[in-house]
Automatic annotation (TrEMBL):
Its cofactor is Mg(2+). This is Probable GTP-binding protein EngB. Belongs to the TRAFAC class TrmE-Era-EngA-EngB-Septin-like GTPase superfamily. EngB GTPase family. GO terms for cellular component: cytosol. Keywords: Cell cycle, Cell division, GTP-binding, Magnesium, Metal-binding, Nucleotide-binding, Septation. NCBIfam families: GTPase_YsxC (TIGR03598). One of its GO terms (molecular function) is GTP binding. GO terms for biological process: division septum assembly. Residues 22-196 form the EngB-type G domain. It comes from Izhakiella australiensis. The keyword Acetylation does not apply. Pfam families: MMR_HSR1. Necessary for normal cell division and for the maintenance of normal septation.
Length: 196
């Protein structure tokens, strides 16, 4: 599919307000600042499709984009803001879990992690929820340009080894919006999920 024609459809404050559970969705999740918005903008070749909401504590929205009719990219709220009250964090975690476990049209999950700080608790939780629901996962180790190529490969191998523990369909790749690393792999994966 041509991801460059992706357009914004709607925002939802929580999963109860999402559009009907039909068609195919691929969701993007990650800690705040992991590079999720940049990755979506790179994929779609649009400067500000996904806007970076840098204000923690503000209502976070689920943003839906349509690649073509019935095929949607879902930008889930970033998690892990240090400044957010515990109660609100838990509320959002539950909502993310509910989406990953109950959304029937969800066919794939992309989890973005800064290559320098991968596999934090909530990252692992996201993967676990997806694997439990038999949703395939693509982990993108973002900002790969920040590491020299040796260190980059070490991180990739380490995360790949750690991911074996999930015993599910979990693929790990390097990514950089800045240097356009891994964009083809992301596109191929999305194509396969949308084709199924
Ligand atoms: P989000 O909170 O997950 O949506 O993250 P953003 O996409 O807003 O990115 C967070 C910060 O990381 C911003 O300052 C970006 O400029 C930076 N960033 C994102 N992707 C890359 C990348 O591929 N390379 C580098 N060096 N910085 C990046």
């Amino acid at each position: 599919w041509n991801y460059h024609v992706t357009r914004f459809v709607t925002s939802a404050p929580d999963i109860r307000h999402l559009p009907s559970d039909t068609g195919t969705e691929v969701a993007f999740a990650g800690r705040s600042n992991a590079g999720k918005s940049s990755a979506l903008n790179t994929l779609t070749n649009q400067k500000s499709l996904a806007r970076t909401s840098k204000t923690p504590g503000r209502t976070q929205l689920i943003n839906l984009f349509e690649v073509t009719e019935g095929k949607r990219l879902v930008d889930l709220p970033g998690y892990g803001y240090a400044e957010v009250p515990e109660e609100m964090k838990l509320k959002w975690q539950r909502a993310l879990g509910e989406y990953l476990e109950k959304r029937a049209c969800l066919r794939g999950l992309v989890v973005l992690m800064d290559i320098r700080h991968p596999m934090k608790d909530l990252d692992q939780q996201m993967i676990e929820w997806a694997v439990d629901s038999e949703i395939p996962v693509l982990v993108l180790l973002t900002k790969a340009d920040k590491l020299a190529s040796g260190a980059r490969k070490n991180q990739l191998n380490m995360v790949r080894e750690a991911a074996l523990a999930f015993m599910g369909d979990v693929q790990i790749e390097m990514f950089s919006s800045l240097k356009k690393i891994g964009v083809d792999k992301l596109r191929l994966k999305l194509d396969s999920w949308f084709a199924a």
